[in-house]
Amino acid sequence: MTTRSDVDTLRDAGNGVVTLAQRDLQGFWNSLDLSRPEAARDELLEFVPQLVREYGDVAATVAAEWYEQVRFTAVGAYNATTVNATNVEQVQRGVRYAAGRLFTDNPGSMLALVAGGVQRYVLASQRGTVARNVQQDPSKPRFARVPTGAKTCAWCAMLASRGFVYLNRSTAGVSDHYHSDCNCQAVAEWDADQHYITGYDPDAMYAKYQDGRAAADSLGLPLTDANIATQMRAMYPGDFTDSHTH
Q1: For residue 112, what are the CA distances in angstroms to 55, 95, 181?
Q2: Which residue has the higher pLDDT, 169 or 212?
Q3: Percent of the chain, pLDDT > 70?
Q4: Across-strand partners of 188?
Q5: Is residue 196 part of a domain?
Q6: Residue burial 152-179, b: 16+ Cβ < 10 Å; e: rest
């Protein structure tokens, strides 16, 4: 049985790796000559993918060790494998997008965008490692997307509302559907049908999802995840980090 303490341990370990990666990013940023934006962009295009790959390895190792410990308590020993989910082209696309800020009156604003991307890309290896082991583990666990902050965004709440149903990365969208600064964890569970994690109530989240879906349908909108999440934000101001305010 995976506990809230287990989830918090995974979150804190991942956050620690991200902090180190962003520290190194800050140090590299401080060495750049922002008066030469093209050169700064090119240096970042080379540096950031290397940074993400390096710390992705660390995040994956942390996740594998976590998986082994939680799995041992639940059903016994297992040798977890690691996944480095770094996609160099994806990372470079993010850097190129953010690099537009270098050509403005506030080039320093690029750093926050890149730092958020580093967080997402590094944790993709952590989340991907949990998902890969769930897929390969002969004990057949499931995993869920579990938010870990006081609040989460409507998009994450919608995906987290599905509970412990995911069997692999393709059904969960582990890397594609996480955003920068997302606090959700990919959490493995061996007693998914009867289990409850403190602070994670997929049934309540699903009820809000159903309300958002009904609202989108009543407006004649296509029932896409984006439209449903938009209605959830409008219907529940204050419940999500990106709720509409009045």
Answers
A1: 18, 11, 11
A2: 212
A3: 93
A4: 143
A5: no
A6: bbbbbbbbbbbbbebeebeebebbeebe
Residue 68 sits in which domain range? 4-140
Whole-number pLDDT of residue 168: 56
179 within domain boundaries: no
Which tokens is 178 given?
Answer: 């996480």
Q: Give the torsion sign (CA, 132, 138, 142, 148).
A: negative
pTM of the model: 0.89
Mean pLDDT of 83-106: 96
Q: How confident is the model at residue 111 (pLDDT cuts 50, 70, 90)?
A: very high
CA distance 158 to 151: 13
Q: DSSP string spanning 99-166?
A: GGGGGSS-GGGHHHHHHHHHHHHHHHHHHHHHHHHHHH-TT--EEEEE--SSS--HHHHHHHTT-TTB
Q: Give the whole-angstrom CA distance, residue 41 versus residue 100.
A: 9
Question: What SS3 state is found at 185?
Answer: strand
Question: Which is higher by pLDDT, 175 or 120?
Answer: 120
Is 27 part of any domain? yes
- The structure tokens listed for 146 are 């579990």
Say if 85 falls within a structural domain. Answer: yes
| Largest Cα span, the chain | 59
Number of domains in the chain: 1
Least-confidence region, from 91-105, 187-201, 203-217: 187-201
Contact 161, 208 (CB under 8 A): yes
Instruction: Provide the mean pLDDT of the chain.
Output: 91
Residue 173 is given by DSSP the state T
- Measure the CA–CA gap between 52 and 123, rounded to whole angstroms: 9
